[in-house]
Amino acid sequence: MADLALGTANVALSATVNNVAATTLAKISGVGDLSGGALSYTLNFGTVVQGVNGGSTALSLTNSAFGPADALAGTFNLSALQVGDPFLLGGFNSFDSLAAGSSLAGGLTVGFSGTSLGSFDRIIVLNRLSTNGSGPDLGLAAVELHLHGEVLAVPEPGTYGMMLTGLLVVMLGARRRTARQAA
């Protein structure tokens, strides 16, 4: 079969180039200090005494891309957390279709309990995808959230200091009584 000459014709073509999805983690409320940015954040609860509740922190996870942009999808890797850890998590579930400028519904919460003694450093990894429904999903670098907190034993009073103070009080009381009886 021979080629057929069709002549010339104008074709209107329009396209949209999306920005890649981006991730921002921010503290909304609660205790603890959130620092870092880009691919590494640290949530530090500081030091608490055993038996004292260290409080909790509410975090916002946002697709911070602007303009026409891909949606954000992700899964959290929680394998670094161990049974008995003082970190209590909420909202760390897989998600998809988080539009540009939108935050994860319900947010994320991290609590810190002072039940177990020790210094605790754990990492939560967010594995991310930039998705647009018209092509293959683009794997993005993982974001790490480092959790840190320390639980110390209840401080015990210095027993020798207390014993000496008590002995001095008893001796002063006895001395005053002896002085009153002699007078």
TrEMBL record:
Residues 153-177 form the Ice-binding protein C-terminal domain. It comes from the Bacteria. Pfam families: PEP-CTERM (PF07589). This is PEP-CTERM sorting domain-containing protein.
